[in-house]
From TrEMBL, chain A:
Family under the similarity heading: Belongs to the pyruvate:ferredoxin/flavodoxin oxidoreductase family.
Native source species: Dehalogenimonas sp. 4OHTPN
GO terms of biological process kind: carboxylic acid metabolic process; response to oxidative stress
Protein name stated in the entry: Transketolase C-terminal domain-containing protein
InterPro entries, per database record: PFOR_II, Pyruvate:ferred/Flavod_OxRd, Pyrv_Fd/Flavodoxin_OxRdtase_N, THDP-binding, Transketo_C/PFOR_II
Domain (Pyruvate:ferredoxin oxidoreductase core): residue spans on this chain: 262-363
UniProtKB/TrEMBL annotation, chain B:
Major enzyme class: oxidoreductase
Tree of life domain: Bacteria
Pfam families: TPP_enzyme_C
Ranges for domain Thiamine pyrophosphate enzyme TPP-binding: 51-219
EC identifiers of the protein: 1.2.7.1
Sorted UniProt keywords: Oxidoreductase, Pyruvate
Keyword Ribonucleoprotein annotated: no
One annotated GO molecular function: thiamine pyrophosphate binding
Ribosomal protein as UniProt keyword: no
Protein name (Swiss-Prot/TrEMBL): Pyruvate synthase subunit PorB
Amino acid sequence: MIGKRHGIEVSIALADAVKLCDADVIAAYPITPQTHIVEHLAELVAEGELDAEYIPVESEHSALSACLGSAAAGARTFTATAGQGLELMHEVLYVASGMRLPIVMAVANRALSAPLSVWGDHSDAMAVRDTGWIQIFTENGQEVVDQIICAFKIAEHHKVLLPVMIHLDGFNLSHVIEPIEMPDKQGVCDFAPHRRSPLTLHPSRPVAMGDFAPPVIFTEAKWAQEQAMLVVKPTIVEIWEQFAEKFGRTYKPVECYKCDGAKNLLFTMGSFSETAMTAVDKLRQAGVDIGLVRLRLWRPFPFEEFCAAVKDAETLLVLDRCISSGGPGGPVASELKSALYKLDKKPKVVSFVGGLGGRDITVAGFEKIIVDGLELAETGQERIFEIVGVRE
Amino acid sequence: MQNLGIYASRLVRKEENFVPGHRACIGCGEALAVRLAAKAFGKNTIVVNATGCMEIVASQLPYTSWKLPWIHTLFENSAAVASGIEAGLKAQMRKGKLPQEDIKVAAIAGDGATLDIGLQALSGAMERGHDFVYLCFDNEAYMNTGIQRSSATPFGASTTTSPAGRAKAGQMSWKKDMPAIAVAHNIPYVATACPSYPFDLIEKVKKGLETRGPTYIHILSVCPTGWRCDTEISVMLGRLAVETGVFPLYEVENGKYKMSMVPDKLKPVKDYMKLQRRFRHLKPEAIDSIQARVVEEYEKLLEKAK
Ligand SMILES: Cc1ncc(C[n+]2csc(CCOP(=O)(O)OP(=O)(O)O)c2C)c(N)n1
Ligand code: SF4
């Protein structure tokens, strides 16, 4: 079922995907670079193209709180945010996952103040990585659209019932115009029909949600939530397979590009991966032994797939778009190191931090990362991490 | 209240929606107020509870005191969660995902949750016009965390963050006028109530629930633990608050003020204050100035209700 591809801004296409999923409630609070998403949804509701309650709340804290209420009442619920907005939602994120509410949220990744920056990096996503949400990173506009559709199906699946964050890089992805094939309405309805949660707030069957848990029960509650998080990966993979069957596009937790037989691997997340691929292509032509591993599923972390992808490599060059301040460098690099710990033969990890606050990394930039990284792997990395392109 | 008190007890629902077995302190006026409000809710109400005493005492896993669908999420967001529930139900009924029926939404919260940390969410929800009733159970401090001052704490009260000492005589600013803030949002119904006047409270909660759009009810709830008073006098103290003019009972329907009860003559505030050890450090001059301010505020209110 290959449809026609149209040039469209990714944020707009994302909002159109939410329309295709027929969301019931949308809570909206503006923040760059997410604004176009909620603006377009407002238009769709105003034009009667999407039958939804659109709640223009007074803060992100309330945006996600309204989502808690509407999802608890069984409605298909969507919101979008970025950077400071995601930070303002922080405490509410834990409630959404702890209550197992299937909310879908798009995050147009943005740096965190101070200094103020509206441009992209992954600091916002990393700050909320332990909040119990499923987190998926996207690479291009098509993937954004497809993952939004999958997100509703994943979140509402009875084996999952967890909120899902779809990350798209602010500006680098949210604001670009790309050729995108929009799935057809009927196809989406068939693929991801709204499944109401088994327990909702309704007088016909009173339930108490969000009770107070003394120490004798809190650990059990959290363990149950963690078990749920750990077993969702096969369901996510299954839903992606069903998506591939229906719409012809395949998604996996970890993607490998020119990895076969490669001794050296570059690791990225998000939209920079496409630039990185071009750099890999160029260096391969020049005879450099390099491949690219890209992570799509960040939470739950796909340990097996990741280890399988890198097990034969000697070097792993990791690019983080966030600094874990005063800590082990990039949060992703440190997590990858811990994932590798149990392997007998581990690749050497060279950690890079770059692309902060909207700083671009060009193809040439990635070539330099690869060349420098391979050299550092030889000589040994003295610093905990290398910072890309900084003017010292 | 007309003559409601004479026959109303027979009209009150016998069934409890907030049932015994919770862990509130002895003499808790807030638990009594919640019980009366829950009677008024009836069966078709979803309750959203902010963090605070009433959530803690009534929802400890694996028990609950609530016979109604109930949700607690956080301290500051009950109005926002209520907005979401209302919107979620509305959309699903319109789209045929749920049968059409009249389901009410009630948000309940303490004074800290309402006047301080949750004021933004409440203001937003009132301004957007969601159809829900918001009940503030005002015990005049953050009681659940141990009697810290809130912006509802009355002038002169000693709390753990506004302690009376040699240099300071307790809370040094006047109580925030939350009902007036609600009125300023041009919502259709605002009222004050106190569980010492149970039928009045029940009637007002019903009215709040039945009125379409956002409604706000501010309920004075005596807290013997925080007010440092004897546990058996909490109902009487509530009455004294009203009879002294410290907490007047009134309604504001579409901006029109109406007194619910006007005592022939206000009792002196010291009769009210002397029963509470939170005020015991106050000098007679301080009590005189509080007395003057109470009368001034009360008269302003009578003027509005003319
Ligand atoms: C964001 C946040 N800050 C602080 C707290 C701690 N806290 C829990 S209950 C409470 C006091 C509640 O006071 P109030 O709303 O007046 O209700 P009461 O307990 O007096 O009924 C506080 C400060 C919290 N739960 N969340
Ligand atoms: S501290 Fe006060 S409000 Fe809280 S349960 Fe005890 S008496 Fe009631």
